[in-house]
Amino acid sequence: MSQDNYVFSPPTPTALPIDAETSSFPVRRVYCVGRNYAAHAVEMGHDPDKEPPFFFQKNPDNINLSDSFSLPSHSQDVHHEIELVVAIGKGGRNIALEEAMSHVYGYAVGLDMTLRDLQSQAKKMGRPWEIGKAFEKSAPCTPIVKKDGVDVESGAIWLKVNGELKQEGDLNQLLWKVPEVIVHLSALFELAPGDIIMTGTPAGVGPVQKGDRLHGHIDGVGDLELSVV
Question: Which residues form a coiled coil (predicted)?
């Protein structure tokens, strides 16, 4: 279909830069894994026993490549959640465990910023979480690092607020490891190049305030730094 056949110009696709390259990674969908670290499940009031993973989504244009995060005016309790981001480079449905990692293009450091008050209200009412998760610019993210030579089976993951350590864990603490997440997700959705998966956050989530400086880190993947405005 030619450009002239649209009633208005299509939006520019969201894309993540690729470290050390001039090309970029176009984002199709953003999947998020809930409660994928036992200690975080406990702090959110849930049983830490391993249960089947569950997923929710953010929107591609929620990705935030800026060095700042704007507090929404309609929430009084905005939380940080540091996460390993997995970028899918090859699609598929019902992907086998032994093939799962061949579908990965690379990794990034991301924040699943959450309006905790609105999310909690939605939970109590049995409603979807989008109002607390898929708000504007709610997914700050670093450029993608290609998977070659990057080990995500283990490695420190942490977040500091104003230099004070708030979240700390290790990728080996993921209840559902990266290949298992891909297997489960591909049984529910047909994955495609451009999908990204936010794999869950360790314990220590908490509120941010105007003027805070956030610094997130994942060994072998990189650092994410931004100011809350």
Answer: none
Q: Are 106 and 147 in contact (CB under 8 A)?
A: yes
Exposed/middle/buried for 107, CB within 10 Å: 0-12, 13-18, 19+? buried
Q: What is the CATH number of domain 15-228?
A: 3.90.850.10
The token pair that represents 131 in the structure block: 């109002």
DSSP per-residue letters across 156-220: EEEEEETTEEEEEEEGGGBSS-HHHHHHHHHHHS-B-TT-EEE----S--EE--TT-EEEEEETT
Residues 153-176: pLDDT tens digits? 999 999 999 999 999 999 999 999
